[in-house]
Write a structure and sequence with these properties.
Number of helices: 10
Shape: globular
Number of strands: 8
Number of domains: 1
CATH topology: TIM Barrel
Length: 320
């Protein structure tokens, strides 16, 4: 796989600093049952990096000490980590809102038969990948048969109340462009998703989040192979909107990798760009217990233009 960081080093991206911490995003490992073209993690079935119980205990200790309001669990497929449920239960017991970033098809994996019931019983918000409402597009991006399995998973979640009015169980979907282009306006595409999925499959969901593909890891490497990396980076830079700087997720989110090391965001984690803290080459979560990160500089490179281009992009979709 081609390295993307050397192509992102020379940056004119403006300096930004952290605000009060609101969300802890925990990457439980890079193992996944899918291998998606747009994946910025380079996750897949052969990855072995998984958070162990000792590191998970340190994460829980940090949640308790910091009082973060949201615990955002990601991967890979986070449900494949044997300690996934322990983290969910601990975070909920500490009063945190929990998000599971689910690829949907993992719910049909061996040993995951009751995962949907577990998530519903604990009021976990699900943010689910469905990069298009057309079968051929999803399968081209995520693998043959993925769309059909995703529809079955969505039906299971709907049956539990997810996505239904007044259920209190939030089900939000995620769209990624098929290639090196900016996503369309979120509001209009969300209406298209609602109409198509309900009319054709009888499916309900709450919101659609449109995400810009980041020129890093598997997607970035693919662009390099196609000779389109610089073209895509130029597109992101040309669409830069300064007003999006105020809302980028790294201002109030802390990203933790499977070993417990911390980063300003999940993208920086995948590029190996740790949080700058007291001159350390990298900081561990245990070292930040009791620390106030407000005002800490955020490490930026050219990939940051992906979060500020056009309508903006974050883990919660468009910024404007």
């Amino acid at each position: 796989m081609h390295a993307t960081l050397p192509r992102l080093e020379s940056t004119g991206f403006p300096p930004i600093r952290r605000r009060q911490l609101e969300s802890l995003q925990v990457n439980l490992g890079y193992k996944c049952n899918q291998t998606c073209v747009h994946c910025h993690v380079n996750a897949g079935p052969t990855r072995t990096e998984m958070m162990d119980r000792e590191t998970l205990s340190e994460v829980i200790a940090y949640i308790k000490a910091s009082g973060v309001r949201t615990v955002d669990i990601t991967g890979g497929a986070p449900e494949l980590n044997p300690h996934f449920r322990a983290l969910v239960l601990a975070a909920r017991n500490l009063g945190a809102h929990v998000i599971d970033r689910c690829n949907l098809t993992v719910l049909e994996q061996p040993g995951q038969d009751d995962t949907a019931d577990f998530l519903a019983a604990n009021g976990v918000e699900i943010i689910a990948s469905l990069p298009c409402y057309l079968e051929e597009n999803v399968d081209a991006q995520r693998g043959k048969g993925v769309f059909e399995r995703s529809i079955r998973a969505l039906r299971t979640l709907n049956a539990l109340g997810y996505g239904r009015p007044d259920s209190g169980l939030a089900l939000n979907l995620v769209y990624n462009p098929q290639g090196p282009s900016l996503p369309p306006p979120q509001e209009k595409l969300e209406a298209d998703y609602h109409r198509h999925l309900e009319e054709r499959y009888g499916l309900l969901f709450n919101h659609l989040y449109v995400l810009t593909n980041m020129p890093i890891q598997r997607f970035g490497s693919t662009l390099i192979s196609q000779g389109r990396f610089e073209e895509y980076l130029a597109l992101l830079k040309s669409a830069y909107q300064r007003q999006n700087l105020d809302s980028v997720m790294c201002r109030s989110l802390l990203s933790v990798d499977w070993r417990g090391y911390v980063y300003d965001c999940d993208f920086n984690q995948m590029l190996g760009l740790p949080l700058a803290w007291h001159g350390k080459p990298r900081a561990h979560l245990r070292e930040l217990i009791g620390a106030d990160l407000t005002g800490n500089p955020i490490l930026v490179k050219d990939h940051c233009y992906g979060c500020t281009a056009g309508q903006g992009s974050s883990c919660g979709g468009a910024l404007v």
